[in-house]
């Protein structure tokens, strides 16, 4: 496909394939929540007559090619390949985020789980500075339904069979809710609150997976019920969030489990370890990691 043909491809149809639909529409224009960033008020306009888009939040705009390049973070050549249908991952027919009303009214039904492949999920992982290799160690690509609508996300299974689900637009979980425990053969334990905290930890310290069992709490509400199990380990490294709740749970574990130690100073100044990795320079991250000695 050449550029002239690609520019004539309808933008609204392209956005629909990528899971984005108009919030409101007139004869002349369609308004969307921006597919390029998070927002609650629609500021992304598509001119139906001229077939161009403009994002009033960033004052960027252009043709269908420009849109695909921005959304997929790719070159002109790659955008043309996606638009020509030669790259299957461009077929993103399912909206990525259910509304709160849909979620409350309907339970989540898991349709399929498989190895992470979809480019949209790989792009999301990349935005969180997580490699696909690391993500595949713990997580799966999960397709699910809420009501009659289908979605997909990165999924982490908990030890009771439920799933923690995350994509760029939405986070949720299925029943039953529980902790996720990886491994049962080491005398050391590493604890994080969420899946991206643990993925970040494995990205920064891959050796931790070779000498520690891994516990993802999925909610700090599970800390108290896990104290007896945590206390059975010879040593425990805590990487909980540095907000009020996370610091409170860290203090509780340090008091109740003398074998534990708080390593959250590693990402001091940030809410959690993933935020620190995403927002910090590589050299600074590397230096702080070198200063941390795991027991």
Provide an overview of this structure:
- With 295 residues, the protein is an alpha+beta fold.
- It has 3 domains: 3-90, DNA Primase, Chain A (Alpha-Beta Complex), CATH 3.90.580.10; 100-173, no CATH class; 180-291, Dna Topoisomerase Vi A Subunit, Chain: A, domain 2.
- Helices cover 34% and strands 23% of the residues.
- The chain is built from 12 helices and 15 strands.
- The chain has helices at residues 3-7, 11-17, 64-72, 76-83, 100-105, 119-127, 132-138, 195-204, 223-230, 244-256, 273-279, 282-291, and strands at residues 24-25, 29-32, 44-47, 52-55, 60-62, 108-114, 140-146, 149-157, 163-166, 171-173, 180-182, 188-192, 213-216, 235-239, 260-262.
- It has a 5-stranded antiparallel sheet with strand order 1-2-3-4-5, covered by helices on one side. Strands 6-7-8-9-10 form a 5-stranded antiparallel sheet.
- The longest helix has 13 residues, at 244-256.
- It is elongated.
- 31% of the residues are buried.
- Residues 86-96 have low confidence and may be disordered.
Task: List descriptors.
single chain, 34% helix, 23% strand, 15 strands, 295 residues, 5-stranded antiparallel sheet, 3 domains, alpha+beta
Q: What summary fits the major beta sheet?
A: 5 strands, antiparallel
Cα-based radius of gyration, to the nearest Å: 22 Å
β-sheet strand percentage: 15-25%
Reading the helices and strands in chain order gives HHEEEEEHHHEHHEEEEEEHEHEHEHH
Structural class: alpha+beta
Give the C-level CATH assignment of the largest domain: Alpha Beta
Number of strands: 15
Shape: elongated
| End-to-end gap | 57 Å
Poorly predicted spans: 86-96
Mean pLDDT: 88
Number of domains: 3
Helix content: 25-40%
| CATH fold-type name of the largest domain | Dna Topoisomerase Vi A Subunit, Chain: A, domain 2
The order of strands across the largest sheet is 1-2-3-4-5
């Amino acid at each position: 496909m050449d550029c002239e043909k690609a520019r004539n491809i309808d933008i609204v149809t392209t956005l629909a394939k990528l899971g984005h639909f108009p919030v409101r529409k007139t004869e002349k224009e369609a308004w969307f929540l921006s597919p390029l960033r998070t927002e609650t008020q629609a500021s992304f306009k598509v001119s139906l007559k001229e077939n161009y888009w403009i994002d009033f939040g960033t004052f960027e705009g252009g043709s269908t090619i420009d849109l695909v390049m921005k959304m997929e973070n790719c070159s002109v050549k790659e955008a043309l390949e996606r638009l020509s249908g030669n790259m299957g991952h461009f077929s993103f027919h399912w909206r990525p985020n259910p509304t709160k009303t849909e979620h409350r009214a309907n339970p989540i039904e898991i349709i399929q789980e498989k190895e992470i492949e979809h480019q949209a999920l790989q792009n999301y992982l990349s935005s969180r500075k997580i490699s696909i290799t690391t993500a595949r160690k713990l997580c799966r690509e999960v397709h699910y339904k809420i009501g009659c609508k289908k979605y997909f996300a990165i999924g982490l299974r908990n030890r009771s069979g439920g799933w923690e689900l995350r994509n760029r637009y939405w986070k949720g979980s299925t029943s039953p809710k529980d902790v996720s425990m990886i491994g049962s053969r080491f005398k050391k334990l590493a604890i994080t609150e969420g899946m991206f905290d643990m993925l970040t930890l494995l990205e920064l310290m891959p050796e931790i997976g070779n000498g520690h069992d891994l516990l993802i709490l999925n909610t700090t509400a599970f800390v108290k019920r896990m104290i007896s199990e945590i206390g059975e380990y010879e040593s425990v490294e805590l990487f909980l969030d540095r907000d009020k709740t996370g610091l409170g749970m860290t203090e509780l574990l340090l008091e109740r489990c003398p074998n534990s130690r708080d390593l959250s100073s590693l990402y001091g100044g940030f809410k959690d370890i993933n935020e620190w990795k995403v927002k910090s320079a590589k050299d600074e991250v590397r230096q702080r990691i070198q200063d941390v000695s795991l027991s």
